[in-house]
Write a structure and sequence with these properties.
This protein is an alpha/beta fold.
Length: 306
C-alpha cells in the first residue's frame, strides 16, 4: 500500500513579540522565535486511520495546517497525495477535506442545503453526480430533516454532522479532522465517531484526526502518533498504545444520596465490567462514567519509560 502522506523533518517556527503588553513594546518591540513543530517525520498509507494527538500547544493543529496548505513550513518537506501542499494549494484542495471543530465552513444564516449547493459549485461538481453523492451522505449521516434549517439553529452535534458531510461532498481521498467532537455530549460524540469510521471504511478514505479525547483515538483510528512540544514521542498502533499505556481507567460514581467518588482501576488486573459490577453491588448507583487517563498523564508515562 502506497503512502498518501510523507513528512520529513518538517519544522514550523513563529516569531512572537516578547514585550507586547508593555509600553516599551510600542517603541522598541523585542521578538523571539518559538518552535511549534520541530523536525517531525512520519508516513501515512492510503486508507489508514491515524490519530495525531497531544496536549494544548503540542503542534497538532500547526502540522495539520501545513499539510492542508494553510501554513508554510520553516523547513523540511511534506508530500500529500503526490503534491507539495504549500506549492499546490488549488490542486490539493480537490483531494482533501478538512473539518475544524471550532471553525465552521457552513454559512451561518443559510439553510444547510444552500451551503451544500455552494460548496458543490466551488468544487465544480457535476449536477447529477453531486446530487447522488449528497443524497448518499445525507442518508448516511441522517441529516435529511436538517437540510432546510439555517446553520445557526442547529445544535453542536447536528452542525458537526453537517460539517463532515460538507467536507466529503467532493469525495476527498484524505480527510483532516481537527477536534471533531470538541464540546459534544457523550451521545453525540459516539454518533460522530461511528459515522466517521463507517464512512472511512466504506470509501477507504485516509483519516488524520487530532483530538484531546483518547476515546476518539481508540474508537476511530488504528494507529496513533503522539506529539509533545513539537516533537513526536510515540508512533505505533492503537493496540500497542493500549497494551503499554492505557491500562488505567477511572470510574466516577454518583450514589442515590448524592455522594460522588472516583475509583481508579488497572485493567490488566481487573476488567472494567468486574469493577462496575462490584460498585453496583456495594452502592445504590444512580450515575456512572468511565474515562481513560488524560493525555497529559499518558505523555508523562511515556517520558518516564524512556
Amino acid at each position: 500500500m502506497s503512502n498518501i502522506i510523507e513528512v520529513n523533518q518538517l519544522t514550523k517556527k513563529f516569531k512572537i513579540q516578547k514585550n507586547a503588553s508593555s509600553l516599551r513594546g510600542l517603541f522598541k518591540p523585542e521578538y523571539k522565535n518559538v518552535t511549534a513543530v520541530d523536525k517531525i517525520s512520519f508516513n501515512i498509507k492510503k486508507g489508514e486511520r491515524v490519530a495525531f494527538i497531544g496536549p494544548n500547544g503540542a503542534g497538532k493543529s500547526t502540522t495539520l495546517k501545513m499539510l492542508s496548505s494553510i501554513l508554510y513550513p520553516t523547513s523540511g518537506t511534506a508530500i500529500v497525495n503526490n503534491l507539495v501542499p504549500w506549492e499546490n494549494r488549488h490542486q490539493l484542495a480537490y483531494h482533501i477535506g478538512t473539518v475544524f471543530g471550532q471553525r465552521s465552513q457552513l454559512w451561518y444564516n443559510l439553510p444547510i442545503q444552500d451551503s451544500f449547493a455552494l460548496i458543490g459549485k466551488i468544487y465544480n461538481s457535476e449536477n447529477i453526480s453531486f446530487k447522488r453523492r449528497l443524497s448518499k451522505l445525507v442518508n448516511l449521516f441522517e441529516i435529511r430533516d436538517l437540510l432546510s434549517h439555517p446553520t445557526r439553529s442547529l445544535s453542536l452535534g447536528q452542525r458537526m454532522r453537517c460539517e463532515i458531510v460538507a467536507s466529503l461532498l467532493h469525495k476527498p481521498q484524505l480527510l483532516f479532522l481537527d477536534e471533531p467532537t470538541i464540546g459534544l455530549d457523550v451521545t453525540a460524540k459516539e454518533i460522530i465517531r461511528n459515522l466517521i469510521k463507517k464512512q472511512a471504511l466504506e470509501e477507504e478514505t485516509t483519516l488524520l484526526l487530532t483530538s484531546h479525547d483518547t476515546d476518539d483515538m481508540e474508537k476511530v483510528c488504528e494507529r496513533v502518533i503522539i506529539i509533545n512540544k513539537g516533537k513526536i514521542i510515540f508512533n505505533d498502533s492503537i493496540t500497542s498504545l493500549r497494551d503499554s499505556y492505557l491500562n488505567k481507567k477511572y470510574i466516577e460514581v454518583t450514589t442515590d444520596s448524592g455522594e460522588k467518588f472516583r475509583k481508579e482501576i488497572n485493567t490488566k488486573k481487573t476488567s472494567a465490567k468486574k469493577a462496575i459490577d462490584e460498585l453496583v453491588q456495594k452502592y445504590h448507583v444512580t450515575d456512572l462514567t468511565i474515562e481513560n487517563p488524560p493525555m497529559e498523564e499518558i505523555i508523562k508515562e511515556i517520558y518516564s519509560r524512556d
